[in-house]
Queue: 2 jobs
Job 1
Amino acid sequence: MELSHLPPEILEAQREFPAALAACADLDALMRLKGAFVGRDGSHAARLMEQLKAAPKERKKDLGATVNALKNQWEEALKLRQGELERERTRAAALAKAWDPELPPPLPPQGALHPLNRLMDRMVEVFRPLGYHVEEGPEAETESFNFDGLNIPPDHPARGSADTFFFQGQADLLLRTHTSPVQVRVLRRIGARGADGVSELERRGGIRFLAPGRVYRKDEIDPTHSPMFHQVEGMIVGKGIGMHHLKGTLSYAMKALFGPAADVRFRPSYFPFVEPGAEMDVRCPLCGGSGCRVCKGSGWVELLGAGLLHPNILTMAGIDPGIWSGFAFGMGVERTAMMVSQTPDLRLFFENDQRFLRTMGGLD
Ligand code: PHE
């Protein structure tokens, strides 16, 4: 568009047009601007039309094209801005209608238990009707409770500083590597004889408890490892407790936890504090056992270690293994949570991303 032959006041108006358009805060202001530029009388466009009429014949064609182009440009831009302002007005009207000054203000978002805590609570609820209560132990634990009292020999690899966090300057103190030291603490307490010569174990006729909690191992963080994770320990001591009790209890618990179709299997395994020892797998909930990414093609997912209490750990606590027996198990909470909710990366449970936590990590 060749503008140089237009009058200076039109050139100036054209230069200022974009800023004037943007400055229109409402439709009234826009209508005033529209009147000034393209209105029927006295507008820039109207004046240009008059000049066009008065122009010498040979200039009419060129001038006419410029005037038309300019007018079209202004009208286009005005229409666009009008659309914007109309949408804004509709939105504001809807907001004003929705706001009821008599309603109470919206509540702030509520907090909730973390998905892992909910899963541990559910474990506790599953075992409570079977007579299990909750016991706790410290996360900063002694070597004696974490290893020695569990019949773990001094040269066992897990005792090395490559696997275990030790406290600097406190030779005997470490971050517990499993919840099993709670077994030792409880066994020592219930095995000790009172002034009347009777132990808590004898007075109760047995004990059953769960010990949920945090544990620590020197692992690099990756989708399936974290230096801090959770376990739920379980233990029962009674008379005549055998492997059949262990299998029955855990099969029942897994059905209560995962639904009646939950299927389990036990494989022989070794832990120094149980004899015999076993690992328990659940049939993969993702593929139903046919083999997939989650179960690495095997159809089963390993969930816990278990076994009958080793006579040595009873003896060390002053309990006669000729009279008393029991079983224990230790379940990985993150692993269970990942399996139930089909979450492929355990870091999601620790990153505090509200979008993930609001779905309860899929554990609802
Ligand atoms: N404490 C064992 C672990 O961390 C699990 C376990 C608990 C095994 C109780 C047997 C009995 O792997």
Job 2
Amino acid sequence: MVLILASVCLISMQSCKPKTTKTAVGGDAAKSFVAPGTYDEFYNIVSGGFNGQIAVYGIPSGRLFRIVPVFSQSPESGYGFSEETKPMLNTSHGFVPWDDQHHIALSQTKGEHDGRWVFANGNNTPRLARIDLTTFRTSEVLEIPNSAGNHASPFITENSEYIVAATRFSVPLDDQNGDVPINTYKQNFKGSISFVSINPTSGEMNIAFQIRTPGVNFDLSRAGKGKSHGWFFFSCYNTEKANTLLEVNASAKDKDFVMAVNWKKAEEYLKAGKAKKQAVKYAHNLYDENTHTAASTIKTEVFVLDPADCPDMMYLIPCPKSPHGTDVDPTGEYIVASGKLAASIPVFSFTKFQKAITDKAFDGEYDGIPVIKYEAVLHGEVAKPGLGPLHTEFDEKGNAYTTMFVSSEIVKWRISDLEVLDRVPTYYSPGHLSIPGGPTAKPHGKYMIAYNKITKDRYLPTGPELTQSAQLFDISGEKIKLLLDFPTTGEPHYAEALPASMLMSKQRKIYKIEENTHPYVSKGEGQTKVERKGNQVHVWMTAIRSHLTPDNIEGVKVGDEVYFHVTNLEQDWDVPHGFAIKGANNAEILIMPGETQTLKWVADRVGIFPFYCTDFCSALHQEMSGYLRVSPVGSNVALHFSTGTNKPSVTDADSAKTIGSTSKTK
Ligand code: K7E
Ligand code: CUA
């Protein structure tokens, strides 16, 4: 009987499967079911938090497609381990193989996603990265000077003119002697906001200018859009300028600020020569897709604007209490600031803000920057929204959705009259949320994804640490409906989603071998060779199904540094080859079709070392291997390499050399 039932289900898989899951969660799981062999509707690009990477999921299925290495080394791909990609992780502090990645920003044109690049922040050693959406690989990493924690970053303007990088921690500036007592915070610690321009064609990042700011902590940011284009809004906390026990001392004041920066004005001041050149040191790392190699350049100056020289460039809007997210609605009129400790959510009006500036409706100054009267700029407050508001996203119908960390829920409210319309529990403690197109001028709506900090009882337990997770909701109707729980990698913070159709057709499938200008490329097996330069041995190697050339290498001596420059000769989609050798102190390398990557390996002892392809590429993948012989220092074994020929020919002396008989010569 059971057998018969099971086979009925098998035959009509599509109707059986959703029904089963349906009953489990109350009737909506079918909406997240993407049948085997069919595609998801949206790509969800999700920050990885403390894994330093970004991850790509399908929506509505929640399926994980790819983890893109950005700020952290990835042994899976060799990113940060191969000689070509090591420079991507270079900084003024040297090689930094990890970071804490919180926010991403998709490039925009005319306020909408254009599907070209993802920008990502490194929170710890202040950095920005650009990921190319045709390859899902990191193309560029830029270090940020005068910063000590790049949290309010990389929010983007509506035509990708700039992304910003505002420091979480204020500190003494880079060109000053920072050896000061910590409790001189108030005199010596300064904040800084970097405006990083984006080259409209190449996407290349460049620090256009910085603004020196009072020594507050910057938390988050959003660019204005539409009518507020030209402005940036930053949430600031610790306006108390406390340097110890911030949980108490930075929560003393009733109101902190949203800092509004007129970047068009800043551009004018820059042009007028108001910026001062400052000596700094920061790394700019760029990956070249023709040489398949990254280069790191250390840059030494930055242009800094001081608000004291730049009237009307920035204003402060009082905001209750330790604001976290500051989000701008699709029209650009409303700025929502979420005070983590506040009982309501203030919503500011850009029109009123402009009028308050004209009317000089000020409430004094903070470090020389005019503070606008709270009431003069307030559209209204969302009353009793929940506890611990953090982040807000928007749909296409004039509604806002705010995560409530403490009360573990998402609250839907209407922007026009600030009325709370619905609330839905999340499991548990959501940080960020995302709605497809939510931060653009034209949200797609339909789905909402919450990224939760705590999962407690939602999943099978896995030791002391439980999985992080996301939850998918249907927001197409009046009521929010839970569709799906799915586990995530790292600790997701911000994320964005865009239609799959924007990216699917433009994916790069291969690198053309004829365009490969890597200095150690082998464009065919005939070009493979092994050469010695002092104690370095360079191996020009090729990989094609199902052999490596050369696959027999002799004449390497203990202490030699061997560089395997492996070119993947394939020109078909999705045929990477991997390369690994016993005892390597780094990782494998995974080489895409037409690409060359280099693994450095040091011969530390005498013996025979197998090497092999790590990616199951064909039926004869297990045969895709070879041997490297290491001889003692001073040995006269000549450098030889071969494939299939069994050369060098075995001499009489060699053939007599069995392991037992050679032991006395050792
Ligand atoms: Cu709220 Cu670092 Cu964007 Cu996380 S931050 S949650
Ligand atoms: Cu190539 Cu396995």
